[in-house]
Structures are given as structure tokens and as C-alpha cells.
Amino acid sequence: MKNTGASNSRRNFIKNTVKGAAGTFAISAIPVSAFPTIVPASVIGKNAPSNRINIGAIGIGRISTTHDLPGVLRYDKSTVMAVCDLDSRRLKQGMDLVDGYYAKKSGKSYTGTKTYENYEDLVANKDIDAVVISTPDHWHVIPAMAAIRAGKDVYMQKPASLTVSEGRMLSNEVHKTGRIFQIGSQQRSMAQFKRACELVRNGRIGKVHTVYVGLPIDNPAECTVEKEMPVPSNLNYDKWLGSTPKIWYTEKRVHPQDGGYGRPGWLRCEQFGAGMITGWGVHHFD
Length: 286
Prior knowledge:
Elements: H1 2-24, E1 53-58, H2 62-73, E2 78-84, H3 88-106, E3 114-116, H4 119-123, E4 130-133, H5 141-149, E5 153-156, H6 164-177, E6 181-183, H7 191-201, H8 237-241, H9 280-285
Helix pairs in contact: 1-5, 5-6
């Protein structure tokens, strides 16, 4: 009964949030036939400064700074226009990363990256064509829904959602609007996995009847080992909790505050995610 109540509370939170977003963001529909190409805003009548794809990054943590942002920055047909995070320290680090990349690339000073604490403000920027969402798992569905309803295409880290019902809401919205949406199951795009699939499907290793997936295990006890700590002034902790049960702040439950990007503690907490099942498991099951 306790879990059901928490699930219902979260579901209501998401429904109410996306209903509010519906009144703010206009739905721009693109035919499903447009998949899987992200197009710049100018193509659908927006005043983009060029034909480049303008990207907004939501969530500036370990995966964003080591994988998602560097990957987008290297793509010559896109520009990272804005970054967003509830931790002002990480927000500045994201801005510095983007500004520094473009400054080095151009050989001159660059300070053009916009910063937002709240994803709502970022997706309201009409010059942004698409968003990359690299937030903690419990903050996946809501910003994705807001971005889609604002006419943005979305690349989002896995998992798509914490619950089946949330995932269905998101899937329905994608199909209804025709927006481009991709989950970060990047292994299916890698040559070695493509080759392995070809071997299996063509019977080169015989008939496969059983597949076992092995995963490491996180220790959930690490979520409760610390006593309550003061919330850092640079972190909007209340909003970070979102739809999850309200609980006191500890650094290990959120992410490191030493300026680095060590593996965050929320990954081990069941109220914020499903651990390695939705971490590495998503890749292997896919």
C-alpha cells in the first residue's frame, strides 16, 4: 500500500505538471515521416539565426559533461545555445565548458551560452530546436513532456521513465505531436553491436534460445548512512526532489559538492531510480 501511494502521488504530480505545461507551451506537430532527422527552427517558420540546430542541455552532471555535451559540441551542424541545472555551481561549469569549447574552436573569446536554473525557461526559448536531457531519472518525463509541447525535439538519457504509466504518457505525447524523440541506448548505434546482431540473426552462432544478463549491484544502504546536512546554497534541493517523497538532504543522496563529477548517490536510492536495472541494464536488455 505504501508503494502504491507513492506511485499515485508521483503520477498525479506529473499529470498536474504537464497539464500546466499544456497551457503554456504550444504543440508544434511534425509528421512522423520526418523521423529521424532533427531540423533547425527556421524550417518550421521560426527565426533561427542560421540553419544550424540550436541545442539546450538540461542537467549538467557526470553523464552530461563526459558524454552528452562533448558529443553535441563535436557535431558541426549544431550549436549548444543554453545549459540548465538546479545546482548553480554545475550550471557555471556547464557554461564554462561550452564557452571554452567554442572559444578554442574559433580562436577568440566566446561568452554566448545562456544559463537557466529552471527547465521551463529553457524550453520557452523559441530559438532552441532540441534539448538533451541528462537529469537524474526521476526528472526525465516532466522536462521531456514540456520540451515536446514547446515544439522541441528530444534526446534523453535512459531510462525513459520510472514507471510504465509515465512512459506511456511520454510515448503518447511523442506520437501525438510527431516530435523526434530518442533514448540514450547508444549501443545499438555501435558497429560491434550491429555486427553481433547480424551474426545472431543469420544463425552464425547457432540457434539462441536463452540470454543471461549480468549486472553489478549497488548498495541502497548508502542512501541512509548520513545524518541530515544543511542544503548547499548553490542547490535548489526542494525542486531537485520533484515528485519524490520529501526527505532531508545529504550529499551522498544527491551528487558530490566538491566540484567534481563522481558517481552520484541518487543512483543507489530507490525513490530516485531503479539502480543498475535501469542503469546498465537498459543497455544490455536492449
